[in-house]
Amino acid sequence: MRRMVFAVFVVLLITPLASAADSDGDGYDDPSENYTVWDGADAYPNNPDIHEPVFSTGCDPPVATLDLGEPVTFTCTIGNEGPVALNVLIDVEEDTHLWDQFDPAHYDISSGEILELQVTLSGLSEGIAMAKLRIFARANNSASHTVDLPIEVTGDEWAGMNSHSEGSNPPDISFINHLIDDFSKWLTNHTPWQFSNMQAGIIVLVGSAGIIGTVRLYRARSVWRRNMQQKPTDDQRTEARFDAIRRSGTHEHHIEQTIPSSPEVIIRRKK
Ligand SMILES: [Ca+2]
Ligand SMILES: [Ca+2]
User: Fold this and answer.
1) Which ligand lies nearest to the CA atom of residue 84 in the structure?
2) How many structural domains does the chain have?
3) Do residues 121 and 237 share a domain?
4) 141 and 236 inside one domain
């Protein structure tokens, strides 16, 4: 009998150490250095009603219209509404009509902190597009939170495309003349014929045009292939959401109101 009591006493002594990790008793262990929210820990260790991380988000502008090749930069805010610091992976889910220039990366967001990110996308082909800013707060899990980035891409070529390349200060191309000069000398020395600068220049031009043409053809093909993969039903769904978001116009950084209020920490003593 005495042994039994002793055994129970020992078990009770050890039990709090083994299970102390779950403070609110919701089945999700408290985060620690070795077991973070990213690994699956409780994002609200003192609230039994919630364990998933919650974010408040917003992107500006709420909607964008782009010409082909035109870029837009969204300023997005991501707030950590929980009491625990989080490490999150943030990326952008592309759309067939867009070119995504955002590099996925991990970010640390402490409790109450608001992270600000710049997300740049360019119009690739005509259509209604919906890119998504995705926040992954758990390893090997789907996104904890997504922000829609609705973009309409027109069929027009972006005027800024030409004004960019023909800027007020044309690039210095005198080095090309030197190159052609050297090239014509090299041709004359290494072939049985006499080459003038003009002839050498034509050879260089024809060669470069061939390379540029190949690149253009490849890019056009890859755009075409991507367009072919998209389903018309997806397009209709995206258009409906795009319209809904444009009409509502409430796409500012919005604070999450649905977090259940945290009760006092329950301290259980086993006697
Ligand atoms: Ca818990
Ligand atoms: Ca909890």
Assistant:
1) 2
2) 2
3) yes
4) yes
